[in-house]
Amino acid sequence: MHPFDVEHLTTSQWRNGGGATREIVAWPVGDEEFQWRASVADIDRDGPFSAFPGVDRTFTLVAGDGVRLTAPGTFDRTARVGEPLAFSGDLELTAERRGGACRVLNIMVRRGRRAARVDRITGPLVPPGGHAGVFYVLRGHWRTDAAGRPLTAGQGVWWDEPDGAPDGAPGREAATPLSPDAVGLWADIAPVR
């Protein structure tokens, strides 16, 4: 497991000037074409989203008043804090903020190679064996063996297909809530066989 803190990740500005991305990981690390990718994006103004053909995306608002994503005649959904929103990266989307600046957790998987599911959790996280994943703290305090100290909002861990448990069987506990207000996002990233 690899711990991260969003505030210490490298920031890349969007070409259209509408925001910035902080990459948590693109797997396999160092390859030009990712199988899966996790990042946090800050959306500073309304405007177009980049399309990612052949990629499935899950977009979860972690801060802000909401973001409406639209593709004329095809897609029209509003993201709210802690509610994952899945869609095809093939879509030419436009983002419209419902207030000021927003922050989102983005999970992207290469279609046909990986599948992702993002859940809001408040209890212990025990990922299935053979799956990759990302755990992101929305609020409260959490413990993981990888971090060595309690994690708070904007921190987390990522991993790729840990050894140990057979594929699909429960693995070892990855995160445990330490406070009654603890809420996290868990992105389970499964290989497509």
UniProtKB/TrEMBL annotation:
Protein name: HutD family protein
Originating species: Streptomyces roseoviridis
Pfam families referenced in this protein's UniProt entry, alphabetically: HutD
Stored InterPro entries: RmlC-like_jellyroll (IPR014710), RmlC_Cupin_sf (IPR011051), Uncharacterised_HutD/Ves (IPR010282)
Region Disordered: start-end pairs: 153-178
Gene3D superfamilies recorded: Jelly Rolls
Stored SUPFAM superfamilies: RmlC-like cupins
